[in-house]
């Protein structure tokens, strides 16, 4: 029996900031580093797709008018992009962060020192509590609250009210931050990411079901070249619910397949710095996953990819002995006001697999997108940060890249589209490019990558197994030993059989 207890115990145990000086002084960056507070027609074999039947002035049901939604966002990459929504009866106006990397619609339902207003559930006659606790943890920050439902409407674009699930945020840590102007988050990803489980229908799923609009939305973020700490009104952008607005992009729309419907997971084939490939195994780019996420500030790269990109940029930049702290996010770099750093840095390209899997296309961002203005010092210096960071949980195409493109989330056809954004300019010059088609490499997605909900199920199963083993162990310790022993002290044949089976 002692051996059995030891083996059971073993089984249970196994289950269970400164600035780099360039003609300037050094200044800490901690106050500015909010990087992680904060994814139709068939593909033509030789050319990208146009918007096709999705480029409508309004959706077929007449519920929404796309032109009414143009410029319905405010914000920038540093503080997030948000839209005004009206919640409850009578309506309470709140600004809601647009996030394609999560699936819960959650609003502040209690006072917080960093927000100016919150949703008072007691004042809404149509609010219904679900009686279920819910919590969500992001790369940085988390919140917890109570599930419920209520009516919502969107002043710029939704002509009717719909009933949606709402998480009333009652407590949070590192989620609401100084300087933000939003009081909630609109998760636009798939149901499998919803908390506490996929039975909580996400906002956009409810919108499609109740209004019969197409299962498509598109996003333009217009913060390219705008200081993330500017005191002036935010740059803005557009969230088009139900389709694609052709006035928001130039050229053609290129599509990449959604590999898995949780995040907007895509397949990255290659990265180039100044037209030079990093020469990495393409599976390195998809380590864990590669997603399109408007709620992530930066372009986040797996550690090995990030190191290669930094090395390439440092070698190709025209600045000697550049501070490593700038690339790791601990230092800003400043120039005398009126001077621009962008000519010193190379362009960066990301290759995505096309819906024709033998082809790919290339998204190119100029330095104006990844060398980002943050603040000025004494009115004499302009300071910038590096818009790329290292990641331990996958590649994330965040606002750093998305600000250069009009991005269409065509859920109906399980694909994400990219076109050059009409607002992606700096001093009148475009800061992004899109080209293709190019030949595509073989499979670049690594081994089995289980969705996060499945991993939670496995974790809970292991915890349950461990609890069962501990209970069994406790019973074995409390109950008297009834093992029959032979006179010579040897255990019986029956016990030997159990022992052999465990081996």
What is the topology?
Elements lengths: L1 H14 L2 E3 L45 H4 L3 E4 L3 E8 L4 E8 L5 E4 L19 E10 L4 E12 L8 E12 L10 E4 L15 H9 L4 E6 L15 E5 L7 E9 L2 E2 L2 E2 L2 E6 L2 E2 L12 E3 L6 E4 H14 L7 H5 L2 E6 L11 E6 L5 E7 L1 H4 E7 L3 E6 L1 E4 L3 E3 L1 H4 L2 E6 L4 E7 L3 E2 L2 E2 L1 E8 L12 H27 L14 H10 L1
Parallel strand pairs: 1-19, 4-9, 5-8, 17-25, 18-24
Antiparallel strand pairs: 2-3, 3-4, 3-7, 5-9, 6-7, 7-8, 10-11, 10-26, 12-27, 13-14, 15-16, 15-20, 19-23, 20-21, 21-30, 22-23, 26-27, 28-29
Helix pairs in contact: 1-8
Question: What does this 3D model show about the protein?
Answer:
With 503 residues, the protein is an alpha+beta fold. Helix content is 18%, strand content 33%. It is built from nine helices and 30 strands. It has helices spanning 2-15, 66-69, 203-211, 303-316, 324-328, 367-370, 399-402, 452-478, 493-502; strands at 18-20, 73-76, 80-87, 92-99, 105-108, 128-137, 142-153, 162-173, 184-187, 216-221, 237-241, 249-257, 260-261, 264-265, 268-273, 276-277, 290-292, 299-302, 331-336, 348-353, 359-365, 371-377, 381-386, 388-391, 395-397, 405-410, 415-421, 425-426, 429-430, 432-439. The chain has a six-stranded mixed β-barrel with strand order 3-4-9-5-8-7. The protein has a five-stranded antiparallel β-sheet with strand order 11-10-26-27-12. It has a five-stranded antiparallel β-sheet with strand order 16-15-20-21-30. Strand 20 and strand 21 form a beta hairpin. The two termini are 14 Å apart.
């Amino acid at each position: 029996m002692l051996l059995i207890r030891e083996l059971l115990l073993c089984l249970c145990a196994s289950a269970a900031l400164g600035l780099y000086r360039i003609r300037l002084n050094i200044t800490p960056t901690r106050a500015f580093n909010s990087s992680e507070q904060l994814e139709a027609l068939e593909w033509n074999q030789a050319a990208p797709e146009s918007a096709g039947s999705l480029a409508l002035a309004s959706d077929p049901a007449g519920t929404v008018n796309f032109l009414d939604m143009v410029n319905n966002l405010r914000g920038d990459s540093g503080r997030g992009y948000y839209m005004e929504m009206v919640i409850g009866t009578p309506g309470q106006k709140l600004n809601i962060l647009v996030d394609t990397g999560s699936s819960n619609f959650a609003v502040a339902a209690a006072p917080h020192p960093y927000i100016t207003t919150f949703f008072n559930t007691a004042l809404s006659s149509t609010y219904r509590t679900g009686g279920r606790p819910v919590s969500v943890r992001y790369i940085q920050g988390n919140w917890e609250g109570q599930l419920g439902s209520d009516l919502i409407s969107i002043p710029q674009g939704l002509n009717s009210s719909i009933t949606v699930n709402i998480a009333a945020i009652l407590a949070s840590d590192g989620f609401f931050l100084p300087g933000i102007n939003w009081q909630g988050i609109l998760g636009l990803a798939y149901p499998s990411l919803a908390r506490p489980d996929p039975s909580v229908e996400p906002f956009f799923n409810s919108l499609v079901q109740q209004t019969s609009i197409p299962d498509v939305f598109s996003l333009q973020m217009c913060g390219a070249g705008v200081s993330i700490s500017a005191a002036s009104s935010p740059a803005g952008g557009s969230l088009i619910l139900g389709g694609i607005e052709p006035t928001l992009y130039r050229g053609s729309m290129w599509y990449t397949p959604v590999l898995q419907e949780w995040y907007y997971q895509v397949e990255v084939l290659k990265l180039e710095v100044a037209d030079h490939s990093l020469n990495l195994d393409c599976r390195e780019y998809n380590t864990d996953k590669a997603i399109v996420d408007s709620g992530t500030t930066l372009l986040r790269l797996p550690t090995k990819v990030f190191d290669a990109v930094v090395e390439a940029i440092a070698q190709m930049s025209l600045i000697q002995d550049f501070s490593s702290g700038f690339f790791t996010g601990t230092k800003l770099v400043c120039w005398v006001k009126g001077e621009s750093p962008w000519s010193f840095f190379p362009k960066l390209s990301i290759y995505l697999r096309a819906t024709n899997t033998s082809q790919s296309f290339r998204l190119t961002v100029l330095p104006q997108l990844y060398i980002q203005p943050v603040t000025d010092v004494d009115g004499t210096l302009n300071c910038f940060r590096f818009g790329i960071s290292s990641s331990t949980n996958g590649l994330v195409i965040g606002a750093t890249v998305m600000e250069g493109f009009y991005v269409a989330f065509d859920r109906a056809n399980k694909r994400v589209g990219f076109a050059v954004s009409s607002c992606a300019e700096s001093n009148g010059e475009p800061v992004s490019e899109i080209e293709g088609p190019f030949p595509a490499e073989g499979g670049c997605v690594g081994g089995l990558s289980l969705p996060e909900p499945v991993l939670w199920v496995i974790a809970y199963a292991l915890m349950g197994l461990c609890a069962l083993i501990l209970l069994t162990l406790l019973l074995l310790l409390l109950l008297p030993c009834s093992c029959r022993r032979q006179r010579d002290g040897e255990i019986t044949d029956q016990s030997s059989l159990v022992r052999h089976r465990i081996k």
